[in-house]
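> call design_seq(struct)
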C-alpha cells in the first residue's frame, strides 16, 4: 500500500519545508508538495509537527548476549523506538563473547533475532590479539572496528598498545572501514593516593585529565597520517582537541569525531558529591568546555552526536567514583536533551537531523539508505513535537533499568511516533508488535527506488 506522510515541517537534506513523503514497500519514493498525494494512498497527516529522518545512534552498548541483565536487544531497541532512533550500531562490548571474531558476531546475530524493534548494525572489536580477524569480520558485515587505548575493564576486549595498533593499521586501511577509538592514554591518568576523597567529583575529574585525551588523539592522527585508515574519535570530551582535529581536516585526513549528550548538557561544576550516576570516561568537564564543544559542532569539527548508551544494573552505579561503573544510559531521552540545549542556543532543527541521523549513518556505511528524508531511502521517520515540554520520569526511559542522571530534568521536544521502513514501531506511548527490526549490512547498495 502506498502511504503519504504529510507535515508542514519536513526536515529534508535541502531544508525544512511543507511536504508529502510518499512511501511504497518501506522506501521513500518521492518527497512532493503537500497536496500532491496519490488518491489511493493511506494518509498520515501530522499538521505542524516536525517530521525528522529516523535517528541513527552509532555508539550503543546493547550487552547481549552474555550480559542481558544489563541491557538486551529487546529493551535497548524499545528505548530506541521511544527516543526516535530507527537504527542502532552496537559496540563489541560489554556482551559475552565480545565481537572480536566471526563466531562471536554470529552469536550476536542469533541473540538479536526476532527481538529488535528498530534496525541494527554491529561494530567489530580490535585488540592486540585479534588482528588476523580484521578481514574476516569486515567480510562478515561489521561496520568498522572499535578499540581502546586504555583498559576498558572488560577482559575479552583488552586495550591495544600503540605498537599493536600500528601493526594493524595496514589491514585497517585495506578494509576501508572506520576505526573507532576510545582516546585516552593510561600514562596521563591519576590513580589516587590515600588522602583522595573519591566521593567528590573533582577527584574523578582530576584522575582523567584533558591531557590524556589530547595525547591519545595526537597519537591517532599521526597513525592516520601515515597509513590513511579512516579514523573516528568516539565521545570527545575535551575541547582542547578541537584545534588538532581542525588541522587534521585541513590536511585532508580521513578523521571524524563525535561527542555525547552528557558532555553537551551537564557540567562538572554542578555534579554533586556521590553523584555516581554522572560517571563516565572521559569525564564530564567544565561549563566553558561544554560551550566549546557546542562551537565545535557548529564549526563542523565534531561531526555527530552519539549516546554512548552504556547501562548496567543499578547496584553497579553505587559507591564512590572510583568503584562505580562508568556509563550513562540515554537512548530514550537523548533527542530531547539535545533539542533542549539547541533551543537555548538558537540552533535550527536541521542541525539535529545532521548530527543525529545523516552523519552517524554515513559513519556506519548506511549512507543512501538511512539518515535522510529523500527518494530511495528507507522510510524511517520520526514525528517530533519540538515545543512539547515535560519533566523526565522513569516512565519515559523504557530501557531495562530506569536509572538516569537526567531524571527530574525539564526538557523540550518529544517523540510522538517512530516509523521503521514505513511501519509504526512506537506511537503515542505504545509499542507495536511483533518487532520488525533487522540487521543492516554496511556498504550494501540498494536497487534503484
Amino acid at each position: 500500500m502506498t502511504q503519504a506522510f504529510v507535515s508542514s515541517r519536513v526536515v529534508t537534506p535541502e531544508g525544512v519545508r511543507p511536504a508529502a513523503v510518499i512511501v511504497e514497500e518501506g522506501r521513500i519514493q518521492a518527497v512532493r508538495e503537500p497536496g500532491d498525494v496519490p488518491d489511493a494512498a493511506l494518509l498520515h497527516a501530522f499538521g505542524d509537527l516536525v517530521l525528522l529522518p529516523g535517528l541513527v545512534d552509532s555508539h550503543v552498548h546493547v550487552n547481549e548476549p552474555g550480559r542481558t541483565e544489563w541491557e538486551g536487544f529487546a529493551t535497548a531497541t524499545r528505548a530506541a523506538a521511544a527516543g526516535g532512533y530507527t537504527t542502532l550500531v552496537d559496540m563489541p562490548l560489554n556482551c559475552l563473547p565480545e565481537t572480536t571474531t566471526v563466531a562471536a558476531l554470529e552469536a550476536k546475530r542469533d541473540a538479536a533475532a526476532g527481538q529488535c524493534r528498530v534496525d541494527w548494525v554491529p561494530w567489530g572489536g580490535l585488540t592486540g590479539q585479534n588482528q588476523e580477524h580484521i578481514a574476516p569480520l569486515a567480510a562478515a558485515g561489521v561496520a568498522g572496528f572499535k578499540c581502546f587505548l586504555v583498559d576498558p575493564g572488560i577482559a575479552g576486549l583488552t586495550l591495544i598498545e600503540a605498537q599493536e595498533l600500528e601493526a594493524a593499521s595496514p589491514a585497517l586501511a585495506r578494509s576501508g572501514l572506520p576505526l573507532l577509538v576510545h582516546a585516552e592514554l593510561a600514562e596521563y591518568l591519576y590513580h589516587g593516593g590515600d588522602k583522595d576523597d573519591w566521593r567528590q567529583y573533582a577527584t574523578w575529574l582530576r584522575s582523567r585529565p584533558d591531557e590524556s585525551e589530547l595525547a591519545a588523539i595526537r597519537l591517532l592522527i599521526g597513525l592516520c597520517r601515515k597509513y590513511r585508515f579512516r579514523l573516528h574519535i568516539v565521545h570527545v570530551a575535551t575541547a582542547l582537541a578541537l584545534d588538532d582535529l581542525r588541522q587534521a581536516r585541513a590536511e585532508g585526513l580521513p578523521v571524524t569525531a563525535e561527542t555525547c549528550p552528557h558532555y553537551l548538557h551537564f557540567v562538572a561544576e554542578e555534579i554533586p558529591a556521590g553523584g555516581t550516576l554522572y560517571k563516565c570516561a572521559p569525564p564530564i568537564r567544565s561549563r566553558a568546555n561544554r560551550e566549546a564543544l557546542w562551537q565545535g559542532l557548529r564549526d563542523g569539527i565534531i561531526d555527530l552526536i552519539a549516546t554512548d548508551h552504556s547501562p548496567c544494573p543499578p547496584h553497579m552505579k553505587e559507591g564512590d567514583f572510583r568503584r562505580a561503573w562508568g556509563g550513562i544510559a540515554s537512548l530514550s531521552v537523548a533527542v530531547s536533551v539535545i533539542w533542549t540545549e539547541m533551543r537555548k542556543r538558537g540552533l535550527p532543527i536541521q542541525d539535529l537531523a545532521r548530527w543525529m541521523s545523516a552523519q552517524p549513518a554515513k559513519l556506519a556505511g548506511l549512507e543512501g539508505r538511512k539518515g535522510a528524508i529523500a527518494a530511495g531511502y528507507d522510510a524511517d521517520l520520526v514525528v517530533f513535537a519540538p515545543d512539547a515540554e515535560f519533566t523526565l520520569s522513569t516512565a519515559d526511559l523504557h530501557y531495562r533499568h530506569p536509572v538516569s542522571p537526567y531524571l527530574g530534568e525539564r526538557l523540550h521536544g518529544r517523540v510522538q511516533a517512530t516509523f521503521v521502513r514505513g511501519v509504526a514501531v512506537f506511537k503515542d506511548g505504545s509499542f507495536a508488535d511483533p518487532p520488525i527490526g533487522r540487521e543492516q549490512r554496511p556498504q550494501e547498495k540498494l536497487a534503484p527506488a
